[in-house]
Amino acid sequence: MKVVALVSGGKDSCYAMMRCIDYGHEIVALANLMPLDDSVDELDSYMYQTIVVGYAECMGLPLFRRRIRGSTRHQHLNYKMTSGDEVEDMFVLLNEVKKQIPSITAVSSGAIASDYQRLRVESVCSRLGLVSLAYLWKQDQTLLLEEMIERGIIAITIKVAAMGLNPAKHLGRELADLIPYLLQIKELCGINVCGEGGEYETLTLDCPLFKNARIFLDKFEVILHSPDNIAPVGFLHPLAFHLQHKMEPLSSGSCDIGSGKVGYVCEVQGDSTPDHMVQSLSACSQLGNCTTKNLNLCISRGSRDKFSIGCWIQNVSKTLDGLQEDLISVLGKIELKLNEDGFDWLNVIYIHLYISNMKDFTLANEVYVKFITEKKCFLGVPSRSTIELPLVQVGLGNAFVEVLVANDHSKRVLHVQSISCWAPSCIGPYSQATLHGEVLHMAGQLGLDPPTMTLCSGGPAIEIEQALLNSEAIANCFNSSLVSCAILLTVYCAASLTFCERTEIQHKMESFFDDDSDSIDVKRVASPIFLYILAPALPKGALVEVKPVLYIPENGDYGIGNNLLGSDSKEMVWDFQTYTISGKICAALVSITKDVAAKICPNTEPELISGDHIRVIAKFCVFLVNKVLLDNYLFWGDLMHLKFYYTAYLSMTAETLNLIFYEVFAAFAEDSKSFEMGKEPIFSLIPVLSSGRSASMEDIITCELFASKL
Question: Which stretches make up the Diphthamide synthase domain (predicted)?
Fold first, then answer.
């Protein structure tokens, strides 16, 4: 991609540009925001601004600059377009760059740890249709600083403001000389060695990107701003500098500016331009579509803070209206249901998006973003997973959507849209993870190499290893770990995999969570539940995708108990696994294998199973679900979701299967008085190629339940 780099004059923005080049991008322009008044701050002085202009000549690139006219008006972490805010100056600046150089598609920034800075850059990029590149994000600061020096960045300190840093001793010093001392006071005082906490500021005098010239400070003075005895604050005030040319001036990159002048500087004027956000669709505008289709809802809803809504289209005749029409209808129906109950998309924590053909993935996203937008979900967009399922084969439409809804707005969302070395970005309106009620719901993770956003080569074993590393990086942002906190991991395997490849994936999963692993710092209290699902296709042509659910207690007290029943007991008919957090959470997986089905009813070969057999199996499932809940001191009202994955090779439609299960549940509800059965079922039936607790995926039906008192 062709990139415009946000530069401040410091080491971080310079090294971020170098990282962009490492990953095959081309820096074609620089952009800089400068203060309205040069005299307000020493670091914003006219001399410093003049030095930054020198970067254009040093690199042979055009520099676009704008004076900051706004102020910090929107002070929440997640930025929302606010007239008069300084972020709108960044929007005007980058919008002008894009106009003058239309080939630019990405923006580079030097954010390392600041969510505040990253989110504002991402907001502007999203509005302008640009990709945010933040290759320093979440990187180890000690390693970063050492890399900067090793790769030839020559930078000096121009401000110090931290315990252990003395203006008289440490201002004007090269970072290469200060590294040992910075590491020492990091251990003693806990400073950020890259200065992310404002401990110090730097000015880059030379780096490998400066092809034409380097900067020399000829004269400067040290100004003591705050003579504090513990953490004095001081600035380096440059009095004179010059550029020392290295060769005949060259242009470092190609751009579309007509002048073609090396070191071209453009000062961007004008007021903030109106935002051009995608117009969102609402349920009202699509109501006609919703009412003309045979839409079905299922609602797993108790008296607690979270519940699920599922929606699909009954399409027994298998008429093909297309994914766009079907998904609009399904999302519109869910939005109507949310609104009826006093909720909206802001209350949604997680979304499962099932589509009939992964070739329509891009189209599905185009429809999706018209309903679920950052504007509607200002606390953060829901996390999401998307897979292809055999929907049409069982008499359903082209889209099936499940949403997990919270009664309140207490969720904490991690949504990183920047491409970085940390974990795969979520450029669309879905987040990496959402935490609510001590349960972390993570988006489906592919085996993507984060800085390149391409699938790792080497086959499914390599992909699952990378997917787990990506999941671990996300978990770390919530001060947790997959190894210590995972409750349930759903592993989606592509249908193209052989049995041996699926078995290898299972071995990789088990090895990652092995208590004896020397590579893991944290020990597990109990083993998580693994659910394997065979799907026709996954996004980006991936071979495997993992979707973790974690328990992250507020007080650090896990209180976890693990109970595995049936697999080693000849006396028990059932085969299920539970994972419980005492008095709080219970996750369970019930497997109806051929062997289990043979003990319940005769003639259990998939092609021979009749409606009567399914009715017996459904009754058995209800019995086991009730047992799991009672054994763990939970009630039907505590259910967050109840799902039944069934093989699409059963010789019956989804409509028939749903009717049988509904009748069984309704009869149980009437007899036991455990819950009330409304017109919508409290469960969802999801067609898959196969499923199970192991990679063999031999279940006829797999039941997944999640109940919580949180």
Answer: 1-221
